[in-house]
Amino acid sequence: MKLSKQEKRLLSILVALAIFACYYLFIYRPMIGDIETMTLDANIMSERLNTAQTNEKRLPDLKRQLDELEKEIQSSFDEIPEIAGEQELVVYLYKTLQPLARKTSLVIGSSEEGTQYNGTVFNISFETSYQNFKRILKLLESSKGNNIVSFTINNIPANQDNENDNLHYEKDYNIIVNMSIEFFYRLHRGQEIEGYPYIKGTMVTTDPFRDK
Fold it and tell me: Within this chain, do residues 90 and 182 fall inside the same structural domain, yes or no?
């Protein structure tokens, strides 16, 4: 069978289309997909490289910040006394509360032993005013060697005026505060642990927490 020129031309076109379709489906499209994947991988690697370079530039600044934080932590830790006696702490609390409170009592509570520091809880009860209590809190919180564990506040009942049969309140002493404060002590090498954190003090011989 002899094909005409037109049929040959049409057949050539069909063969060319078939070859192009095979090339597009089996070579071009997979190659484009591989190129897109490699381009995406290259962009990801570029972003990672930029991030790594940025972090590398920040390393000195981050190290400086870390050193500053470590110094602050060590400074705060150094402010905790290595050792303090029961009597010394009683005097400290008495000096803090004496101008602002009255009828103060103190009970030494439980002790906590840690790996780097020990702590002892003091339970205090005193009469004061709301304004003076704010000042007491500020004074106690300014010291890094102690931690206010808890406190409760109760109003003092009014006094009976027998002459006029009236009730009246004392302005400067209208609340009762019960507070627990924990004092911390640093451990150091060669320290005697037995009986810690107490030592025999010589600052006072009597309890200054007595009613005025």
Answer: yes
The residues near 116 (Cβ < 8 Å, ≥ 6 apart) are 77, 186, 187
Q: How high is the pLDDT of residue 208?
A: 37
- Confidence bin at 178 (pLDDT 50/70/90): very high
Full residue range of the structural domain in which residue 1 is found: 1-78
Q: Are 49 and 125 members of one domain?
A: no
pLDDT tens by residue, 62-108 = 888 888 888 887 776 666 555 556 677 777 788 888 888 887 788 87
* Residue that has been written with the tokens 């997909």 in this structure: 33
Q: Are residues 91 and 136 in the same domain?
A: yes
203 in any annotated domain: no
Query: Hey, how many other C-beta atoms are within 10 angstroms of the C-beta on 17?
Result: 10
Token pair belonging to 76: 């705060």
3 state DSSP class of 18: helix
CA–CA gap between residue 71 and residue 54 (Å, rounded): 26
Number of domains making up the chain: 2
* Matching residue, tokens 């209590």: 133
- Cβ–Cβ under 8 Å, residues 132 and 126: no
Token duo for residue 210: 């007595």
SS (H, E, C) 24-68: HHHHHHHHHHHHHHHHHHHHHHHHHHHHHHHHHHHHHHHHHHHHH
Q: Does any domain span residue 195?
A: no
Residues 50 and 102 in one domain: no
pTM given for the model: 0.45
Amino acid in the structure at residue 120: T
